[in-house]
Specification:
230 residues, mainly alpha, 73% helix, CbtA_put
């Protein structure tokens, strides 16, 4: 069981992390680099003259971009360990786990770790006003854990009490409210902030769909190998 768990999580996390790392370099990093030009003061909008929306950006950097892909692979391997553990508990309760059903597990992971926190604490580009980072991290972890429990109750709950508790857990962090900045002082144009939030959530969905499908596939394959070896 231990080898099945580790092999499934490591392969799923590394594969999905490598693909997502490349997608982030293509779609998210250009928006980040654009925002950093405003954060550093190299570009300023609201001036007398219009500012180009297509400035020259730094090109591919092997060290920086290579480390970014490796860090993404490590991050999604960590997520894979959580997802495969949840899949194993789900299988014990009769859930079918394979590459196709893994997509649904991946969408659930996206909701728990991206969409639910992002509903009140949107992805932030460099240079925007934000509340204290520690407070945001505490709220983010609380919201993600609450969403994970809620989705489990929705999937495996047997009565209205469980489903009602799930609804409460999903809503509570947003009724409490995410930490917000005292004032809006960020120099970054709203168009860049909006594009970054859209790209971050879109890539997040793709990442979790891939992660769920890979995790389900490897979990099923390793289970079949273990059954044949027994």
């Amino acid at each position: 069981m231990t080898s099945r768990f580790l092999i499934s999580a490591l392969f799923a996390g590394a594969l999905s992390g490598a693909i997502i790392g490349l997608l982030q370099l293509m779609f998210v990093q250009p928006v980040l680099l654009h925002a950093e030009l405003y954060e550093s003061g190299e570009l300023v909008h609201f001036g007398a003259e219009a500012v180009s929306a297509h400035p020259a950006l730094p090109g591919f950097d092997l060290m920086r971009d290579g480390l970014s892909v490796i860090f993404t692979m490590l991050t999604y391997t960590g997520y894979a360990l959580i997802l495969v553990a949840a899949m194993s508990f789900g299988e014990d309760r009769g859930a079918r786990i394979d590459g196709r059903w893994g997509i649904l597990w991946g969408v659930a992971g996206f909701v728990a770790f991206h969409l639910a926190p992002g509903f009140s604490l949107a992805p932030e580009v460099p240079g925007v006003a934000a509340a204290d980072v520690t407070l945001r991290q505490i709220w983010w972890f609380g919201t993600a854990i609450s969403a994970c429990i809620a989705l489990w109750l929705l999937a495996f709950g047997q009565n209205w009490a469980a489903w009602g508790a799930a609804a409460l857990l999903l809503a509570a962090p947003h009724l409490i409210g995410a930490p917000e900045p005292e004032t809006f002082t960020g120099p970054v144009p709203t168009e860049i902030g909006a594009l970054f939030a859209a790209r971050a959530l879109g890539i997040g969905l793709a990442a979790w769909v891939l992660l769920g499908s890979f995790a389900g596939y490897f979990w099923q394959r390793e289970g079949e190998h273990a059954a044949q070896a027994a």
